[in-house]
Design a protein that fits this description.
The chain contains four helices and four strands. It is of the alpha+beta class.
Length: 178
Amino acid sequence: MATASPGPMLERRLIAGWLLLSGLVIALDQWTKWLVESLLPFGASVYVAPVFDLVHVRNTGAAFSFLAGASGWQREFFITIGVIASIWIVWMISRAQAGQRAFCLALSLILGGAIGNVIDRVRLGAVVDFLHFHWGPYYFPAFNVADTAISCGAALLIIDAFLQGRRESRAGTGASPS
């Protein structure tokens, strides 16, 4: 059975556009963290709404403070992972096909978030978090713009993979897309 050609690769200007989006995520992330560091003393919390506070905390671990209590080795570990992941993501964007907009958007968001958090780890040894949602005694760990971009990018990757699987399944059965 013959397989269809994957299609043309992205043009350099499109790759630059996706990398520019990553740069905008980095800029927004670093600007919001600078605001928090400038306006809120470390450890401060400001009530915004019944379910939301602005806080100024630092996370030496990964998502959900994973490994935050480790002895310090995790800083270099997470910096290394962030740098390697960033290089890999740039390579993936450069190898993407022209029609893979959702895929490239997802990777651009993840790349911007990863670099934003690596900057914090290099600069401070921890990531500045400031968005804190809670419901009564239940709370979600504080996070930042970079974490939001990474999470949105990861969710978009999952959705895109699911939809791509459906498209391939329909193409294989001869069903028309709806």
